[in-house]
């Protein structure tokens, strides 16, 4: 087996933390670099932590596969513009820098309903990110479109909690075209990213919530 190297952005987040644990245990990867704003309390022989200022980032690292779990909320970011920086501009910029440096695969968390023409700002931003990444023409691009992501989050997100409550309640009747609205756990999402990294070598792949849900234990 030819070993690979990975870059994770957003490794300190709910999904990113699970993904990092999975990749550190994954023999496919010889080294995992994470870009973080502040150090995380994990040390591992395969882990390289790089403290970066995402605004100033202008160089790439050696990584065959790039995983993007970056994201914020408009409330937390403080404005739509600040949200756009995190959810669109940073991933797009890192995607371009890494492609130029030879990365082969980009795996990114978008969201169900992502659409660059949407009247909803969040969905429009995610749609614009998907479009921008597609235009980069990575040899392999995997776009994950989860519905609500469940897990133990320290931060209080009331709107999200209410959404998860109702999505779980109606989950049994989310069938057919509505399956893509099923909430998923952050662990299942991370596992589906790891699986896609193993499975796909070329092409553009969209992974919906119901496909991600299959990784729920
Ligand atoms: N939550 C949901 O229900 C849901 C549903 C569909 C799609 N999504 C999408 O799924 C992705 C992952 O979500 P999640 O809930 O796992 O993420 P999360 O727990 O909110 O973590 C977000 C990550 O982004 C980083 N980040 C946030 N603001 C930043 C900034 N200004 N500069 C640099 N890094 C920043 C955080 O770093 P710090 O630790 O330094 O803050 C963290 O590593 C996001 O793109 C989100 O939009 C979420």
Question: Could you explain the architecture of this structure?
Answer:
The mean pLDDT is 94. The protein contains seven helices and nine strands. The strands form two sheets. The protein has a seven-stranded parallel beta sheet, with helices on both faces. The protein has helices spanning 14-24, 74-77, 80-100, 121-136, 158-170, 186-199, 209-213, and strands spanning 4-9, 29-36, 47-51, 65-68, 105-109, 140-145, 149-150, 184-185, 203-208. The protein has 217 residues and is an alpha/beta fold. The structure holds NADP nicotinamide-adenine-dinucleotide phosphate (NAP). Residues 10, 12-16, 37, 54, 69-72, 86-87, 109, 111, 146, 148-149, 160, 186 line the site of NADP nicotinamide-adenine-dinucleotide phosphate.
Q: What is the CATH H-level superfamily? A: NAD(P)-binding Rossmann-like Domain
Could you give the order of strands across the largest sheet? 3-2-1-4-5-6-9
Helical coverage, percent range: 25-40%
Identify the overall geometry: globular
CATH class reads Alpha Beta
How would you state the average pLDDT, rounded? 94
Instruction: Return the domain count.
Output: 1
| Series of secondary-structure elements, N-terminal to C-terminal | EHEEEHHEHEEHEHEH
Runs in which pLDDT lies below 50 for 5 or more consecutive residues are none
CATH architecture: 3-Layer(aba) Sandwich
Structure summary, number of beta strands: 9
Question: What molecules are bound to this protein?
Answer: NADP nicotinamide-adenine-dinucleotide phosphate
Instruction: Quote the CATH topology.
Output: Rossmann fold
How much is the radius of gyration in Å?
A: 16 Å
Structural class: alpha/beta
The biggest sheet amounts to: 7 strands, parallel
Query: How many helices does DSSP assign?
Result: 7
Fraction in beta strands: 15-25%
Distance from N terminus to C terminus (CA atoms, Å) equals: 28 Å
């Amino acid at each position: 087996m030819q070993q690979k190297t990975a870059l994770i952005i957003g490794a300190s987040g709910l999904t990113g933390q699970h993904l990092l644990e999975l990749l550190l245990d994954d023999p496919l990867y010889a080294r995992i670099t994470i870009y973080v704003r502040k150090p995380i309390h994990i040390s591992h022989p395969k882990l390289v932590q790089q403290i970066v200022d995402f605004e100033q980032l202008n160089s790439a690292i050696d990584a065959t596969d790039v995983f993007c779990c970056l994201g914020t909320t408009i409330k937390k970011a403080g404005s739509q513009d600040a949200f756009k920086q995190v959810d669109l501009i940073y991933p797009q910029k890192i995607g371009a820098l890494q492609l130029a440096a030879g990365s082969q695969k980009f795996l990114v968390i978008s969201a169900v309903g992502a659409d660059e023409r949407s009247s909803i700002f969040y969905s429009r931003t995610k749609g614009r990110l998907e479009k921008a990444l597609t235009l980069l023409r990575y040899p392999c691009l995997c776009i994950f479109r989860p519905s609500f992501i469940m897990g133990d989050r320290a931060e209080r997100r009331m709107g999200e909690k209410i959404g998860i409550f109702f999505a779980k309640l109606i989950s049994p009747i989310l069938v057919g075209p509505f399956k893509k609205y099923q909430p998923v756990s952050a662990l299942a999402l991370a596992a589906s990213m790891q699986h896609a990294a193993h499975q796909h070598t070329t092409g553009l792949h969209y992974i919906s919530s119901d496909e991600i849900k299959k990784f729920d234990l």
